[in-house]
């Protein structure tokens, strides 16, 4: 079982130390809660036609609640957009038992453990790649579009193309951009989207309307 297996991974010493330290020290507002403090598995049905590939769990978000993009500001923005798009049954994501359900969508991250400063290293992305590939194998029969949230996730797609689909990435690699589309036979379409980080959403670099445009296009391309 993919979700159970991933919770036991200890392959990245720096991230294992950080995820566990945060789970002990906690943020004051969550002092009374038990943090998850382990790798965060993907979320969403196995027959998803759209995948969202994120960066990594947030220390006090996914690393606290055990569900990706759950319990932090990034998730607030993302799930509000997914609800508007009809891909989520509710606009909020606060805890693993809040009743949130996705339709036609599975969300997972390039790195499964919370990194210091929200900045995983390329070596940690490479080490975690087999988990991404297993997520893609799970939804491979149905997935048609992969939305990469940010350049780090965009970079994680190329080895996945080779490992999961046996298709060589274009040379040179297309650069990440918001709204950038890479479409080629035999693999899902890749669609770039600025990450839903506070850095982007608070500054207006990424607006709700821009997210709506991305998910409208993703749905069209996925036949939803
Ligand atoms: S980031 Fe990925 S590979 Fe590294 S410890 Fe966490 S689950 Fe394992």
From TrEMBL:
Record domain Uracil-DNA glycosylase-like: where: 41-215
Keywords, sorted A to Z: 4Fe-4S, DNA damage, DNA repair, Hydrolase, Iron, Iron-sulfur, Metal-binding
Superkingdom of origin: Bacteria
Cross-referenced CDD domains: UDG-F5_TTUDGB_like (cd10031)
InterPro entries linked to this entry: UDG_Type-4/5, UdgB-like, Uracil-DNA_glycosylase-like, Uracil-DNA_glycosylase-like_sf
Residue ranges of coiled coil: none
Bilayer-spanning residue ranges: none
Family: Belongs to the uracil-DNA glycosylase (UDG) superfamily. Type 5 (UDGb) family.
PANTHER family in the record: TYPE-5 URACIL-DNA GLYCOSYLASE (PTHR33693)
Descriptive protein name: Type-5 uracil-DNA glycosylase
Native source species: Paractinoplanes aksuensis
